[in-house]
Each structure stands twice: as structure tokens, then as C-alpha cells.
């Protein structure tokens, strides 16, 4: 499991200083069925501040 998860979405309540994600778990899904690149995925862990 990744020890440090980086995130640049500072409007998320899980965003922490240094572009770190401080969520206890991360949920990522594909927004187009089978993803072939990062643009075809979504972070479902996102919660607006």
C-alpha cells in the first residue's frame, strides 16, 4: 500500500499541507469502464471543504 498519497486538490477536506492526502483510505473508480490513463479515473474519496 502507498505510504504517502499526493493530492493537489486543495478544495478537498482530506488535503493536507505538502499536497498530501490524509484520508484513512482512498477510493478510485474508472469513469469510462476500463481505464487506460489517469484522465479516465475519478477519486471518490473527494469531499469538498
Automatic annotation (TrEMBL):
Residues 5-46 form the DUF1540 domain. InterPro entries: DUF1540. It comes from the Bacteria. Pfam families: DUF1540. This is DUF1540 domain-containing protein. It comes from Paenibacillus albicereus.
Amino acid at each position: 500500500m502507498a505510504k504517502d498519497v499526493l493530492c493537489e486538490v486543495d478544495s478537498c477536506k482530506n488535503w493536507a499541507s505538502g499536497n498530501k492526502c490524509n484520508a484513512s483510505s482512498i477510493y478510485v473508480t474508472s469513469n469510462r469502464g476500463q481505464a487506460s490513463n489517469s484522465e479516465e479515473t475519478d477519486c471518490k474519496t473527494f469531499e469538498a471543504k
